[in-house]
Amino acid sequence: DQVRFETTYTALAPQLKVVAPWREWNLRSREALLDYLKERNIPTTASLEKIYSRDENAWHISTEGGVLESPWNAPNKDCWVWTVDPQEAPDQPEQVTVTV
């Protein structure tokens, strides 16, 4: 995604400088990024215990990082945001209508 975003911004607004921390700065891990934020008193919802990044839009939310880096690992209970762990979900379906 990073390359796609950078090339799009460069094409649409070549006068803007794109800052790409993961590529340009010495931040090679999520732990290093957490240290960077802590040193500068920048708030974040991530922690060493919940070291996820999330991308959210109207249609979905994706969560990555931590135990999820290996596809063999099941998500922890704190990974669920919009939904719940299937083991904790109701046994009966519920119909939902979404309107704009």
TrEMBL record:
Protein name per the record: argininosuccinate synthase
EC code(s) of this entry: 6.3.4.5
Organism this protein belongs to: Serratia marcescens
GO cellular component, as recorded: cytoplasm
GO molecular function per UniProt: argininosuccinate synthase activity; ATP binding
Protein keywords: Amino-acid biosynthesis, Arginine biosynthesis, ATP-binding, Ligase, Nucleotide-binding
Signal peptide extent: none
Residue intervals of the Arginosuccinate synthase-like N-terminal domain: 1-43
Record-linked SUPFAM superfamilies: Adenine nucleotide alpha hydrolases-like, Argininosuccinate synthetase, C-terminal domain
A biological-process GO annotation: urea cycle
Uppermost EC category: ligase
Pathway: Amino-acid biosynthesis; L-arginine biosynthesis; L-arginine from L-ornithine and carbamoyl phosphate: step 2/3
InterPro entries according to UniProt: Arginosuc_syn_C, Arginosuc_syn_N, Arginosuc_synth, AS_cat/multimer_dom_body, Rossmann-like_a/b/a_fold
Domain Arginosuccinate synthase C-terminal as annotated: residue spans: 52-98
